Amino acid sequence: MKKLFTIIVLLASMQYVVAQEEIPKISVSFTNVDVSRALEIIESKTDYKFYYLDEWLENVKVTGNFQDTQVSLILDDLFKNTVLNFYISDDQKIFLLQNNQIYDSLPDDFFGEQEDALADEEIGYEQLKDLGPLFVNSNDGANRGLEVVKIGRENRNNRRRTFTLSGKIVNEKGQPIPDLAIIVKGKDIGTSTNAGGNYSVDLPVGENILETRGLGIQDSRTKVILYNDGVYNFQLNESFEVLDEVVVQANRDRNVEAALTGVTLIEVEKIKNIPLVLGERDILKAAVTLPGITTAGEGAAGFNVRGGRTDQNLILLDNGVIYNPSHFFGIFSAINPFSTGSAEIYKGNIPAEYGGRLSSVFDITTKDGNTEKFAGEASIGPVTSNIVLETPIVKDKSALLVGGRATYSDWILRSLDDEQLNNSTASFFDVVAKYNHTINENNEIKATGYFSRDAFSITSDSIFDYSNRLVSLKWDHKFSEKTTGSLILSNSEYKFGIEFDGESNDDFDLGYKNNETEVKIKMKYLHSDKHKFDYGISSKLYVVNPGDIVPLGTESDVSSLTIPEERGLESAVFISDSYEVNKKLLIDMGLRFSFYAALGASSQRIYQDNAPLNSGTLVETQEFDKNEVIETYGGPEVRLSARYFIKPDLSIKASLNNAYQYIHTLSNNTTVSPTDTWKLSDLNIEPQEAYQASLGLYKNFEGNKYELSVEGYYKQQKNLLDYKVGAQLLLNEAIETEVLQGDGKAYGVEFLLKKNEGKLNGWLGYTYSRSFVKLDSEFNEERVNNGDFFPSNFDKPHDISVVANYKFTRRFSASANFVYQTGRPVTFPIGSFSFNNSEFVFYSDRNKFRIPDYYRLDLSFNMEGNHKIKKFAHSFWSFSIYNVLGRNNPYSVFFVTENGDIKAFQSSIFSIPVPTITYNFKF
């Protein structure tokens, strides 16, 4: 029987060869026409007849110009970007097929040795012969009834035995599903979706049963028949089953498996129970409860990451920079929690694609709008109200998300005992909009717009205001199954103003603004299972207006002054490779080369060599024309990290990296102020540099029920910008004479224990860290604390955070948040002296003393609405008490001289328990 079958195949093969030789050559041209029309034209020029199903050719356009070309070659070209194959019979019939091919011959050894070759895991692609036709078991009872999906176009010349399946998984609202486990039944293959719901997995050719599992998502099973590389996007429904316990499998070992050190992922939905001040869910305040991230004090704006300054953090919202991410004196963040999907925080080894900051990157992503149906979320609290709406624009393809948040906080200031604050006002609002559009399986665009504004008046004669504005556009394109890329355009602006209208004749209006525009191209190339490359280029233009002041009113004696504009161009190229050396060792190697040019028009002051910078040592002023290069800086930035498995659930990681920062903040405040200005590097001010090494141990227990990590770091910094005593930083054209540049060092150990499952869950974080600054010079006026290292303003050796959630039932839960921190350094007056009949205060070395330690306990009780499926909205009540113990934690200490005596005072933000009731609903 086998011999008879072989003879039949050989005869058919001979007839096929003869038919191929007789295929005529024709000339034909197509320009973006339906493929069905192209086939009709070919039929009119030949004796061939095509056979196919009409639905196979829907929405398929073709273009081509062929001169004296065989029909088979024309069809090869027309169908190269489709899943269509064809077969030409000897009776002038052409049969079209989806995905698979018609075989009229079988490869050698098809009935025996080829199967042995497929089972040999060490055989390379070049050693495999033609695999022959692909057979699918249609009578598989266990998998009968499953949805069958065919992917790719079969190619008999392709000798690969595995292909890449990729795509995006969304829920019924069109939102991406992150951390969803994808498992191939019966095979040791699996992956998970990233934050954008995208996945990629290498599968063997032929039949694969894909199973998905995720928290709150219905499980699914799909039969995928894989002929070649391809894309499969699909939608899953939320799960409303009542479960005693849910085990999260997706990315369950991320903390142990990833190569990068010091990386934290925060998801908004998972922090909604953490009790925070005035009931506002806050992704950035939640970050402060994690090791290595702190602030200078309660209500302080900005973050200090691993001993770094607040200006050393790159805070991105959909790839656009936010310079001041705070509202209401730092009590709230400027990021709308309802429109935010997640935040990836890098505080150890920063990926090569990011640059321009030394300490950390907060990469915050706005969630995509719902492409399926209208949805929204809103909250009403004692100080703020918030609403986010999502609506489809083109069903299943595009959607618009719009969110807004505003405050009615003046009643808080009016209720305070301080008479000076009774008539004060403080308000803020922010709006965000995002449009996401899937053009096709290879192209997707996303556009985001954001604006926030704060205005406050603490005294009756001054009004302060500041605002952030950004726009960003991202175009994602898939070039092939292995290569994807993104084009990113963004523009950010930060500005503040002060309007003073007092009783004297010195009324004024002051303004400041900085602006940056960036273009970035980043690519991803999946070379193989062992190598995954990221590479690209970026360029950013800074434009800083250091400030201007004009008289307010005709009677003001203030003179108009405008400080000249500063401009700088920062560019970079970068490449990184995630290299899996073996099953135990993973290395992430990155290199970034950054280049900065300070640009004119500008007047740069030249000072004497080997002399302090002051008006007495000024030699000349050099003029530079517009866009003329004033000075250049730059160099290589190494990003190297590695992970080694000691056991499957125990790994050790190490990293080493360096970075340059070309923009600095100018401040002589202890904490961040809205009136802090930014200064670009130029002829007299060099860029900051930092070098960091870290080493950590990571362990999971009981199937990721518990996570434990211990990580230590050491950081050195150069050219940190600080201030001289009594410096005038605002509206100072010769700013280099008021500042100092010195060295810094920081080191510490971070401990984190998390419990992810069970009725009681949460985490315990402890950080021991030190941060020092050294301002040394051969000139006394440029030396601080005798040129020795001294603690920075935010040096807090001990930092403990405990976050605990207890779930009584599916609807009722309680949460607690405890914080303890060492008091930050301050400078105290230690004496006084008389000179020329005047009294002067003598101060200690800078930051020699500390304010009292800080500790606080917050509690909340949370009640969710019923879990009925068919209802308009899902509600969530939160009853919380901030600072339950009523601890009068000092925010700052200041000194006042009264009748020749120096008196010390401390200020506090919340010195009593603050109760809050917040109502949230989601529809």
Automatic annotation (TrEMBL):
Query: Which keywords appear in this protein's UniProt record, sorted alphabetically?
Result: Cell outer membrane, Membrane, Receptor, Signal, Transmembrane, Transmembrane beta strand, Transport
Where does it reside?
Cell outer membrane
Q: Which PROSITE patterns match?
A: TONB_DEPENDENT_REC_3
Pfam (any one): Plug
Q: Which residues form the signal peptide?
A: 1-19
How is the protein disposed in the membrane? Multi-pass membrane protein
* InterPro entries on file: Beta-barrel_TonB_sf, CarboxyPept-like_regulatory, Plug_dom, Plug_dom_sf, TonB-dep_rcpt-like
User: In this protein, which residues make up the domain named TonB-dependent receptor plug?
Assistant: 279-357
Quote a single Gene Ontology cellular component term: cell outer membrane
> Can you tell me which family this protein belongs to?
Belongs to the TonB-dependent receptor family.
Question: Would you tell me the protein name for this molecule?
Answer: TonB-dependent receptor
Species of provenance: Flagellimonas aquimarina
